[in-house]
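// run 5 | inverse folding | seed 20
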Protein backbone atom coordinates (compact mmCIF):
# COMPACT_ATOMS: atom_id res chain seq x y z
CA UNK A 1 0.00 0.00 0.00
CA UNK A 2 2.84 2.38 0.90
CA UNK A 3 4.56 1.69 -2.44
CA UNK A 4 1.30 2.31 -4.30
CA UNK A 5 0.78 5.67 -2.61
CA UNK A 6 4.40 6.66 -3.19
CA UNK A 7 4.12 5.79 -6.88
CA UNK A 8 0.86 7.71 -7.16
CA UNK A 9 2.45 10.79 -5.59
CA UNK A 10 5.41 10.60 -7.97
CA UNK A 11 3.06 10.32 -10.96
CA UNK A 12 0.91 13.21 -9.81
CA UNK A 13 3.75 15.55 -8.92
CA UNK A 14 4.47 16.75 -12.48
CA UNK A 15 0.75 17.33 -13.06
CA UNK A 16 0.46 19.40 -9.90
CA UNK A 17 3.61 21.31 -10.82
CA UNK A 18 2.36 22.12 -14.31
CA UNK A 19 -1.08 23.09 -13.05
CA UNK A 20 0.39 25.65 -10.68
CA UNK A 21 2.59 27.27 -13.34
CA UNK A 22 1.00 30.55 -14.37
CA UNK A 23 3.14 33.57 -15.15
CA UNK A 24 2.07 37.13 -15.87
CA UNK A 25 3.27 38.52 -19.22
CA UNK A 26 3.22 42.18 -20.22
CA UNK A 27 1.40 43.17 -23.42
CA UNK A 28 -0.04 46.37 -24.86
CA UNK A 29 -1.69 47.53 -28.06
CA UNK A 30 1.35 47.65 -30.35
CA UNK A 31 0.79 45.71 -33.58
CA UNK A 32 2.17 43.56 -35.03
CA UNK A 33 3.86 42.54 -31.75
CA UNK A 34 0.69 42.61 -29.63
CA UNK A 35 -2.93 43.49 -30.38
CA UNK A 36 -6.41 42.40 -29.34
CA UNK A 37 -8.72 40.79 -31.88
CA UNK A 38 -12.48 41.38 -32.11
CA UNK A 39 -13.11 38.89 -29.29
CA UNK A 40 -10.58 40.55 -26.97
CA UNK A 41 -7.94 37.81 -27.34
CA UNK A 42 -4.31 38.90 -27.53
CA UNK A 43 -2.63 38.17 -30.86
CA UNK A 44 0.57 39.19 -32.65
CA UNK A 45 4.14 38.16 -33.35
CA UNK A 46 5.43 38.37 -29.78
CA UNK A 47 2.22 36.84 -28.42
CA UNK A 48 2.45 33.81 -30.73
CA UNK A 49 6.09 33.23 -29.83
CA UNK A 50 5.22 33.46 -26.14
CA UNK A 51 2.33 31.04 -26.46
CA UNK A 52 4.62 28.57 -28.22
CA UNK A 53 7.19 28.86 -25.42
CA UNK A 54 4.60 28.48 -22.67
CA UNK A 55 2.98 25.50 -24.38
CA UNK A 56 6.32 23.71 -24.50
CA UNK A 57 6.98 24.63 -20.85
CA UNK A 58 3.46 23.45 -19.92
CA UNK A 59 2.65 26.75 -18.24
CA UNK A 60 -0.36 29.05 -18.32
CA UNK A 61 -0.21 32.75 -19.28
CA UNK A 62 -1.90 35.75 -17.71
CA UNK A 63 -1.56 38.71 -20.06
CA UNK A 64 -1.30 42.11 -18.36
CA UNK A 65 -1.78 45.32 -20.37
CA UNK A 66 0.55 47.98 -18.96
CA UNK A 67 2.84 50.65 -20.51
CA UNK A 68 6.49 49.70 -21.01
CA UNK A 69 7.93 52.04 -18.38
CA UNK A 70 5.46 50.81 -15.77
CA UNK A 71 6.19 47.21 -16.79
CA UNK A 72 9.92 47.67 -16.13
CA UNK A 73 9.08 49.04 -12.67
CA UNK A 74 6.89 46.02 -11.95
CA UNK A 75 9.44 43.51 -13.27
CA UNK A 76 12.06 44.86 -10.85
CA UNK A 77 9.73 44.27 -7.91
CA UNK A 78 8.18 40.98 -9.00
CA UNK A 79 4.83 42.58 -9.81
CA UNK A 80 5.00 41.04 -13.27
CA UNK A 81 6.89 37.90 -14.27
CA UNK A 82 7.89 38.35 -17.90
CA UNK A 83 8.58 41.14 -20.38
CA UNK A 84 8.96 40.42 -24.07
CA UNK A 85 11.32 41.98 -26.61
CA UNK A 86 13.82 43.13 -23.99
CA UNK A 87 17.23 44.45 -24.95
CA UNK A 88 19.91 43.19 -22.57
CA UNK A 89 21.62 46.05 -20.72
CA UNK A 90 23.79 46.06 -17.60
CA UNK A 91 21.14 47.80 -15.42
CA UNK A 92 18.45 45.34 -16.53
CA UNK A 93 20.63 42.32 -15.78
CA UNK A 94 20.41 43.30 -12.10
CA UNK A 95 16.68 42.48 -11.97
CA UNK A 96 15.98 40.27 -15.00
CA UNK A 97 17.13 36.89 -16.29
CA UNK A 98 17.18 36.61 -20.07
CA UNK A 99 16.32 33.71 -22.34
CA UNK A 100 16.76 33.96 -26.06
CA UNK A 101 17.30 35.57 -28.38
CA UNK A 102 13.64 36.07 -29.13
CA UNK A 103 13.85 38.30 -32.22
CA UNK A 104 16.39 40.22 -34.23
CA UNK A 105 15.53 43.88 -33.81
CA UNK A 106 16.69 46.69 -36.07
CA UNK A 107 15.75 50.25 -35.16
CA UNK A 108 14.68 52.10 -38.31
CA UNK A 109 13.09 55.38 -39.36
CA UNK A 110 9.70 55.71 -41.07
CA UNK A 111 9.58 58.81 -43.27
CA UNK A 112 7.38 60.42 -45.93
CA UNK A 113 7.81 58.80 -49.33
CA UNK A 114 8.81 62.10 -50.96
CA UNK A 115 11.58 62.83 -48.42
CA UNK A 116 15.19 62.56 -49.56
CA UNK A 117 17.34 63.67 -46.63
CA UNK A 118 20.51 61.69 -46.07
CA UNK A 119 21.75 60.05 -42.87
CA UNK A 120 25.01 58.11 -42.95
CA UNK A 121 25.90 58.48 -39.26
CA UNK A 122 24.18 59.67 -36.09
CA UNK A 123 25.84 63.09 -36.20
CA UNK A 124 24.05 63.80 -39.50
CA UNK A 125 20.81 64.02 -37.53
CA UNK A 126 21.95 67.34 -36.06
CA UNK A 127 21.62 68.86 -39.56
CA UNK A 128 17.97 67.87 -40.05
CA UNK A 129 15.35 70.59 -40.47
CA UNK A 130 12.80 68.96 -38.14
CA UNK A 131 12.74 66.57 -35.24
CA UNK A 132 12.25 62.80 -35.08
CA UNK A 133 9.61 61.17 -32.89
CA UNK A 134 10.73 58.52 -30.39
CA UNK A 135 9.40 56.63 -27.38
CA UNK A 136 11.03 57.54 -24.05
CA UNK A 137 11.12 53.98 -22.68
CA UNK A 138 12.64 52.28 -25.75
CA UNK A 139 16.35 51.47 -25.93
CA UNK A 140 17.72 52.50 -29.34
CA UNK A 141 21.27 51.25 -28.84
CA UNK A 142 24.32 52.20 -26.73
CA UNK A 143 25.73 54.80 -29.15
CA UNK A 144 22.34 56.48 -29.47
CA UNK A 145 21.83 56.51 -25.68
CA UNK A 146 25.29 57.97 -25.10
CA UNK A 147 24.73 60.80 -27.59
CA UNK A 148 21.32 61.57 -26.09
CA UNK A 149 23.01 62.03 -22.71
CA UNK A 150 26.07 63.98 -23.83
CA UNK A 151 25.24 65.93 -27.01
CA UNK A 152 22.55 68.60 -26.65
CA UNK A 153 22.46 69.39 -30.37
CA UNK A 154 21.78 65.70 -31.04
CA UNK A 155 19.16 65.16 -28.32
CA UNK A 156 17.39 68.37 -29.36
CA UNK A 157 16.51 66.70 -32.66
CA UNK A 158 14.17 64.22 -30.95
CA UNK A 159 10.83 64.57 -29.22
CA UNK A 160 9.11 62.03 -27.03
CA UNK A 161 5.53 60.87 -27.53
CA UNK A 162 3.46 57.70 -27.44
CA UNK A 163 3.03 55.62 -30.59
CA UNK A 164 -0.32 57.07 -31.59
CA UNK A 165 0.89 60.65 -31.19
CA UNK A 166 4.08 59.95 -33.11
CA UNK A 167 2.14 58.58 -36.08
CA UNK A 168 -0.21 61.57 -36.01
CA UNK A 169 2.78 63.94 -36.03
CA UNK A 170 4.36 62.10 -38.94
CA UNK A 171 1.13 62.13 -40.93
CA UNK A 172 0.76 65.88 -40.32
CA UNK A 173 4.38 66.60 -41.26
CA UNK A 174 5.25 67.87 -37.78
CA UNK A 175 8.21 65.45 -37.53
CA UNK A 176 10.53 64.17 -40.25
CA UNK A 177 10.19 60.58 -39.13
CA UNK A 178 9.44 58.18 -36.30
CA UNK A 179 11.72 55.47 -34.96
CA UNK A 180 10.65 51.89 -34.28
CA UNK A 181 11.77 48.33 -34.85
CA UNK A 182 11.57 46.95 -38.39
CA UNK A 183 8.53 44.73 -37.75
CA UNK A 184 6.46 47.63 -36.42
CA UNK A 185 7.64 50.02 -39.14
CA UNK A 186 6.72 47.60 -41.93
CA UNK A 187 3.31 46.97 -40.37
CA UNK A 188 2.54 50.69 -40.03
CA UNK A 189 3.54 51.47 -43.61
CA UNK A 190 1.42 48.60 -44.89
CA UNK A 191 -1.62 48.74 -42.62
CA UNK A 192 -1.85 51.97 -40.57
CA UNK A 193 -0.39 55.03 -42.28
CA UNK A 194 -1.79 56.51 -45.49
CA UNK A 195 -1.21 53.91 -48.20
CA UNK A 196 1.72 54.63 -50.50
CA UNK A 197 2.75 57.79 -48.65
CA UNK A 198 5.55 56.50 -46.40
CA UNK A 199 8.72 54.43 -46.62
CA UNK A 200 11.70 53.21 -44.58
CA UNK A 201 14.83 55.34 -44.51
CA UNK A 202 17.87 53.15 -45.35
CA UNK A 203 19.84 54.16 -42.24
CA UNK A 204 19.87 51.65 -39.36
CA UNK A 205 20.05 53.24 -35.91
CA UNK A 206 20.82 50.00 -34.11
CA UNK A 207 20.84 46.27 -34.83
CA UNK A 208 20.62 43.83 -31.97
CA UNK A 209 18.67 40.92 -30.52
CA UNK A 210 15.86 41.12 -27.98
CA UNK A 211 15.04 38.51 -25.36
CA UNK A 212 12.44 37.08 -22.99
CA UNK A 213 13.09 38.91 -19.71
CA UNK A 214 12.07 37.08 -16.51
CA UNK A 215 11.82 38.82 -13.15
CA UNK A 216 14.52 37.66 -10.74
CA UNK A 217 12.19 38.64 -7.91
CA UNK A 218 9.25 36.40 -8.85
CA UNK A 219 10.61 33.64 -11.10
CA UNK A 220 12.68 30.95 -9.41
CA UNK A 221 15.86 29.49 -10.89
CA UNK A 222 14.06 26.17 -11.24
CA UNK A 223 11.27 27.81 -13.24
CA UNK A 224 13.79 29.69 -15.34
CA UNK A 225 15.58 26.43 -16.16
CA UNK A 226 12.25 24.93 -17.21
CA UNK A 227 11.68 27.77 -19.67
CA UNK A 228 15.26 27.54 -20.93
CA UNK A 229 14.70 23.87 -21.78
CA UNK A 230 11.44 24.73 -23.52
CA UNK A 231 13.14 27.50 -25.49
CA UNK A 232 15.96 25.20 -26.60
CA UNK A 233 13.52 22.61 -27.92
CA UNK A 234 11.26 24.87 -29.98
CA UNK A 235 14.11 27.04 -31.19
CA UNK A 236 15.94 23.97 -32.48
CA UNK A 237 12.72 22.75 -34.12
CA UNK A 238 12.30 26.03 -36.03
CA UNK A 239 9.05 27.05 -34.34
CA UNK A 240 10.14 30.65 -33.71
CA UNK A 241 11.51 31.06 -37.23
CA UNK A 242 8.22 29.82 -38.69
CA UNK A 243 6.25 32.42 -36.70
CA UNK A 244 8.64 35.24 -37.66
CA UNK A 245 8.51 34.29 -41.34
CA UNK A 246 4.72 34.38 -41.29
CA UNK A 247 4.68 37.95 -39.99
CA UNK A 248 7.36 39.10 -42.41
CA UNK A 249 5.23 37.81 -45.27
CA UNK A 250 2.07 39.47 -43.91
CA UNK A 251 3.83 42.83 -43.62
CA UNK A 252 5.12 42.78 -47.18
CA UNK A 253 2.14 41.41 -49.12
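// decoded
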Amino acid sequence: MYRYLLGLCICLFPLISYATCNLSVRVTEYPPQYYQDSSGEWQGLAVEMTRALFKQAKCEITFVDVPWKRALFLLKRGGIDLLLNMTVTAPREKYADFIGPMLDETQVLTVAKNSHFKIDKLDDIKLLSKRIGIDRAVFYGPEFADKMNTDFYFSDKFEYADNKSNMAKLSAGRVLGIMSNQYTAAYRIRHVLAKGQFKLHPFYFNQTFVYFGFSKKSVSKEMLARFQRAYDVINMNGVFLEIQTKYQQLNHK
